[in-house]
Amino acid sequence: MKEGLEKYRHVLVITDKKHEEKALRMQRELQNRGKSVQLEVMASLDVLIGKELVSNQPIGRGLIIFGEGTLGIERVAVSAGYSRDDIFIDSSQESRAFCSQCHHITIIGSDESFICENCLQQLEPSEHYSTYHRASLAYPVFKETDGKG
Amino acid sequence: MSNSSKEFPFPFTKDSYAYSNNSILLDPARSVAVSSHYIEEVKLKRNLLNQNHERCFRALPLSLEAQWEVLLLVFKELSTCEPQYFTLEQRGNAYQFTNHLLREVESFSFKDSSSIEVEPLDLAGRHVQEDLIIMGDRHDGLFLEAGQLCFPSNWSLTFVLGMEFKAIHTPVPGITDNRFIEKVERFITRIRPNSAWERKNWSVTITNKLDTPLETYSDWGKLRYNVTEANAGELVNLRVEVQRLYRLPVTNDILFSIHTYLLPLNELISNDEWLKKFYTNVKTLPKEIADYKGISLYKRELMTFLERALTQRKIER
Ligand code: HEM
Ligand SMILES: [Zn+2]
């Protein structure tokens, strides 16, 4: 767990859908340490909803923002009275990719093409995300020469 | 005219194509249909199920109630609407379904899982040509809770299991424009008990392969590179899915059935009206949709083939 979060008794966690699993893991970890956690999930980070959320918080809380494009919410949080030290950002790309050929899930670190650990197909992750599998669908990549010869 | 042409549900009504809610109310309400390809297609489905069960059948435990409802609905419908091919007898809770086309008898006690060897939806699907999907109608949306899917057009049942209707449609280009998919979902949630709606969806398949799941895309997808002007008539098939949405009256879930038809272009072009409509629709198809349907790779060859047929038949473009 992030060192700096230790001091908060209450933490607000805002996340986009893509980072929901990470946010849930964080929520569990914080709760295990006796903290109260409010988790807010949105399809993608939205400044207006974010503003609503951070404005209604008592002061002295920690704020964690998971997702892509966190800057907008960071700004409204600061104008709502959060100090920069209370805001923790995690935009890291680590995600689960569901192999469309063999159904194995590989943890990947970027949105670039990768090789399935199980069937060794070259795959490309997509925007098609399942909250059930908590993973994005990865499609096979055809090499230019495939099938042409 | 072949049986395939006679039965073929030609999908184009206008001169250009755009995604729309082209559903019509069915009277009487039906969930399945029997075509002249019944025996070969049901056998093909069963082979696929036997060889790749995990790929072709998936169900969440909470779907069991709706699965039983579907089993009885389908068997009752078949025996009522096609009594020459199917009969259903009932004694209390015990049922006996006879499939005269396949010379088979299924006996079971309603809602007694120990009386059947596979799950109820899986059993129902082994007697129809359709793929069968159960969409659970929950307070927060429609969720894919069970499916028997042998003939998908490049999607994975395992991946979409448990997913919500709108999320399932993420890969379709422009599907959220003007809140299209939201409106479709609202339309589905308003379908009345025991009513059925039908729509057609189309795509193009290379060869007459019905089973084109995403899982084997790396095998069949590359055939798209093989299309030439000379072989298009044989290789390229117009693929039409007749999709039905049926509101189950007891569980209030939705049965979504998909009956897939294929027609090789050589047969399609013998109908002047079809040739012309198919040509103008493909010609004006927006690029994103052509890419999504996989047509872009051979669109030039396809157009040349169709233009030659139009010229031969002296049809104005
Ligand atoms: C409730 C049952 C339904 C299910 C389970 C379902 C599922 C799907 C799936 C899995 C795909 C393929 C997505 C992919 O490429 O991964 C798809 C495509 C599509 N769906 Fe649905 N769908 C349903 C109902 C409908 C309805 C009622 C409409 C419209 C009125 C609709 C419109 C479309 C369209 C336009 C496409 C793209 C098809 C193409 O261009 O080939 N769907 N659907
Ligand atoms: Zn794989």
What do these coordinates show?
The complex is a heterodimer of chains A (149) and B (317). With 149 residues, chain A is an alpha/beta fold. Chain A folds into two domains: 5-90, Nucleotide-binding domain of ferredoxin-NADP reductase (FNR) module (Rossmann fold, 3-Layer(aba) Sandwich), CATH 3.40.50; 95-140, no CATH class. Helices cover 21% and strands 33% of the residues of chain A. Chain A is built from three helices and nine strands. In chain A, the strands form two sheets. A five-stranded mixed sheet of chain A has the order 6-5-9-8-7, with no helix packed on it. In chain A, β3 (62-66), α3 (71-79) and β4 (87-90) form a beta-alpha-beta unit. The longest helix of chain A is centred in the N-terminal third of the chain and has 13 residues, at 20-32. Mean pLDDT of chain A is 87; it is low at 145-149. By secondary structure, chain B is an alpha+beta fold. Chain B is 34% helix and 23% strand. Chain B contains 14 helices and ten strands. Chain B has helices at 3-7, 38-51, 53-56, 64-81, 120-125, 157-160, 165-168, 180-189, 217-220, 232-235, 265-268, 272-283, 287-292, 299-312, and strands at 24-25, 57-59, 86-91, 94-99, 104-109, 131-138, 141-148, 196-206, 236-247, 254-264. In chain B, the strands form two sheets. Chain B has a seven-stranded antiparallel sheet with strand order 1-8-9-10-6-7-2. In chain B, α12 runs antiparallel to α14. The longest helix of chain B is centred in the first third of the chain and has 18 residues, at 64-81. Chain A binds chain B through residues 98, 100-103, 121, 126-133, 137, 139-140, 142, 146-148, and chain B through 54, 156, 158-164, 167, 170-171, 214-218, 221-226. Residues 19, 21, 23, 133, 135, 144, 155, 160, 165, 168-169, 171-172, 184, 188, 199, 201, 203, 245, 254, 256, 292-293 of chain B line the site of protoporphyrin IX containing FE.
